[in-house]
Amino acid sequence: MLVTDNSQIIKSIAKDLGFQYCGIAKAEFLEEEAPRLESWLNKNYHGKMAYMANHFDKRLDPTKLVEGAKSVVSLLYSYYPSEDLANDGTYKIAKYAYGKDYHFVIKDKLRDFMMRIHEEIGEVGGRAFVDSAPVMERQWAAKSGLGWLGKNSLLLNKQRGSFFFLAELIIDLPLAPDGPVKDYCGTCTKCIDACPTDAIVGNQVIDASKCISYLTIELKEEIPTEFSGKMQDWMFGCDICQDVCPWNRFSQPHHEPEFLPHDELKNMKKNEWEELTKEVFNEVFRKSAVKRAKFEGLKRNIQFLEKD
């Protein structure tokens, strides 16, 4: 079968499974990214995320992750909610964590995707990834034409903004690659100006050790006092740089029932969060990404915010 025919089959399967966008790139060494990644690590912008320094070669070369890899298929799955729960007057959770943990939801879809490829194309080797291995997913999505990297380093799509989960199939099937698109950020600096902790230190360069998402999720120690008064009530993750991005005025609500928030999550007030018990935490966040912070971590975050 022709390479272009197989590419169309892949894109058709992606659409059937509910992915809003699908792009293809040739599996090859990310030459431009190597010095950028090295510089970022050398400046310790990864904070306490020691794992970011591991598997340097695999991060940059998909053929080291999947033997015989020929193509990287990048997929976008929207999580933009119909209702923003990050109101003033309550503690805030990033939109991606409102419903069921995306790792479970997307992984199931990727399993179905690989099965469909085997049924419709034949025996194809490869692996599926959703934020689960050293894959530079935003760079691959940009390389395959699904958008460009904004100044906040997130992938921006001209039609639908940035509230997407990213996933990849790295497979040994040659496919017709899509070209990258141009950068449409221009002179806009809204994300840089809005970041209360000054975590965006250059174009597409984030000092993760200052990022509210890092401080509330990845950091296991006490949050440094220098961030007191700067967290703007975010207790798990942060959407500030996305919320102010002009391209996100085109965001459209998702249609994924699994991403709908627990009813209690919609109505919790500050005093209720401050009195949160482990039982309520386990109920509201039963299959949620918030479990990553653990009950103790979320309580730590809330207590830090209480002092503001």
TrEMBL record:
Q: Which GO terms describe its cellular component?
A: cytoplasm
| Any single GO BP term | tRNA queuosine(34) biosynthetic process
Residues binding cob(II)alamin: R59, D131, N152, L155, L166, S213, C238, D239
Q: Where is the 4Fe-4S ferredoxin-type domain?
A: 173-205
Q: Which residues bind tRNA?
A: K220
Please name the InterPro entries in this protein's record.
4Fe4S_Fe-S-bd, 4Fe4S_Fe_S_CS, QueG, QueG_DUF1730
- The parts of the chain that form a coiled coil are none
- Entry EC number(s): 1.17.99.6
Give the protein's cofactors. cob(II)alamin; [4Fe-4S] cluster
Q: Which gene encodes it?
A: queG
Protein name per the record: Epoxyqueuosine reductase
- Cite the binding residues for [4Fe-4S] cluster 2: C195, C211, C238, C241
Active site positions: D131
Tell me, in a sentence or two, what this protein's role is: Catalyzes the conversion of epoxyqueuosine (oQ) to queuosine (Q), which is a hypermodified base found in the wobble positions of tRNA(Asp), tRNA(Asn), tRNA(His) and tRNA(Tyr).
Q: Which catalysed reactions does the entry list for this protein?
A: epoxyqueuosine(34) in tRNA + AH2 = queuosine(34) in tRNA + A + H2O
Extract one GO molecular function annotation from the record: cobalamin binding
**Subunit annotation:** Monomer.
Keywords from UniProt, A to Z, are: 4Fe-4S, Cobalamin, Cobalt, Cytoplasm, Iron, Iron-sulfur, Metal-binding, Oxidoreductase, Queuosine biosynthesis, tRNA processing
Q: How are cofactors bound according to the entry's free-text note?
A: Binds 2 [4Fe-4S] clusters per monomer.
